[in-house]
Structures are given as C-alpha cells and as structure tokens.
Design a protein that fits this description.
Blueprint (H helix, E strand, L loop, with lengths): L1 H24 L6 E8 L3 E2 L2 E2 L6 E9 L4 E9 L11 E13 L2 E11 L8 E11 L2 E8 L13 E12 L2 E11 L8 E12 L2 E10 L14 E3 L10 E3 L4 E9 L1
Antiparallel strand pairs: 1-4, 1-16, 2-3, 4-5, 5-6, 6-7, 7-8, 8-9, 9-10, 10-11, 11-12, 12-13, 13-16, 14-15
C-alpha cells in the first residue's frame, strides 16, 4: 500500500506545482479598459442632452496600481441642449482612488469639452468622493463659470448613489443629486434616478426612471431655465421641450 501512496502523493504534488506555475504565469489584468454604451437618450444630472434622441457613448480608462487613473468619455449631444453649433461632448479626467477595506476615497479633476460650439462652451470641475460597500457620495465643484454661464463660478453638485448586487447578474441602482447653481437661485434643482441592471455575458442592460424638479419654462426676464430649442428648419419654426421632464432611459453597454 505504501508503494501506491508515494506515487500518488508525488502526482498530487506535481499537479499542485503545475497549477501554481500556471497561476503565476497568468497575465495580470490590463490597466487599460474601454467601454461603449447605446442609450435611448443622454441625461446629465437629470437634464436631457440629446433632445430625446438616442446617444452613442464610449471611452477609455487607465488605472495604475498606485491608484492614479486617467480617462476619456464621449457622447453625442444636441445643439438645442445649450451647445450652439456643437454635437459632441468630450470629457477628460484624472485622479486618485484608494480602498481601505469597505471604504474608498476618490479625488480628481474633470474637463468637459464641446468642440465646435460658438460661443465656446466648456466646464472645469474638481471632485472628492467616498464609498462604503454599495453606497457612494461625491461632490463636484466648478473652478470656472459653470458650462460657461457668466458669474457661475463655484457652482457645486452633490451626487449620492447606491448600487446593490441582487445576485444572478441583477443589480439595483438609485441616485439623488442636487445642483447649487451659483448666483442663479432659480437654476438650482434636484434630480433622481431609480433603475435596474442585468448582466448578460458581459453586456449590461439597464432601465432607469429619471426625474427632476428643474423648471422647464422660460418666463420673461428669467436668466436660466431648462427648456431646449431645436434650430428652425425650412417650413418650421423650431421645436421646444422640457429638458428636465421625467422619463425612462434604456441602455445597453459593455466594458472590454
């Protein structure tokens, strides 16, 4: 019996050695990832950016082992959403993330660019955030005029979120945000979202109900409102719609 045990033990040890070598030889995850999403419309802080039309979105992220990260994200937008002569949003960001058990911190800077807009529209923000398990909070602070609106430097936006794993690829997402629009009291508003996601072989399907209490009417003398106007075309006078109206947004995306 002992003669049978020894070869078996040697075989087991050899198998374990081969398995360990295979694990050691396995390539480390790439620090560079990409993402792409198709959405029924694009909402930014609850406000419609595509005049109710679909959006194609995507970008790239680089994450270093030290916690430093850089990224770019892009989406089509409508000129009627406040970006005259512009049709694309390009975001560039960088920062530092670190986890401490169930807690995490995130600090960084983001620049929103809208090529082709005339007059030029852009936005610059710094942010700081924290996470605990499935809960997250992040505060964004404009270091220049908020989306080039005169006199709105120091505008702030608070983002509270929860993303809960229900198991079997299902997830629940909730969000509440509040924009404190500097020097425009009637421009400040809150937005919210409640949604569900389903992971299908790496493709993430999503459905979210999004709402705001943003004003959608432009009264005389009102310096800021959330009504979008599409440019007039032959035989029409243009169209307007409430950019902060409640809606359901559907999406499908993938990270690779």
């Amino acid at each position: 019996m002992r003669k049978l045990v020894v070869p078996l033990a040697l075989a087991t040890a050899a198998t374990a050695s081969i398995s360990a070598q295979a694990q050691q030889a396995a390539p480390a995850p790439s620090p560079l990832t990409g993402n792409v999403t198709l959405a029924s419309e694009y909402r930014f802080r609850g406000i419609d950016q595509t005049f109710g039309k679909p959006a194609i979105q995507g970008g790239f992220d680089y994450s270093h082992a030290s916690g430093v990260y850089l990224g770019n994200w892009n989406s089509n937008v409508s000129s009627g959403a406040g970006y005259p002569h512009g049709n694309i949003e390009m975001d560039f960001y960088g920062g530092y993330k670190r986890a401490f058990g169930d807690f995490g911190v995130d600090v960084g800077f983001i620049y929103y660019a809208y090529p082709g807009t005339d007059p030029k529209i852009d936005n610059k923000e710094v942010y700081i955030g924290g996470t605990w398990k499935f809960l997250a909070a992040k505060y964004f602070y404009a270091i220049d005029d908020y989306f080039s609106a005169p006199g709105t430097k120091h505008t702030g936006y608070l983002d509270l979120a929860a993303n809960y794993d229900l198991g079997r690829g299902w997830g629940l997402a909730a969000h509440y945000g509040h924009l404190n629009f500097k020097n425009f009291s009637n421009g400040s508003y809150s937005d919210w979202k409640l949604g569900v996601t389903k992971d299908l072989s790496g493709w993430l399907l999503g459905a979210s109900y999004i709402g705001t209490n943003a004003k959608g009417n432009c009264g005389s003398g009102e310096p800021y409102c959330f009504t979008q106007t599409l440019p007039a075309v032959p035989a029409t006078t243009g169209r307007t719609r409430d950019a902060g109206r409640s809606t359901i947004v559907l999406s499908v995306g993938k990270t690779f």
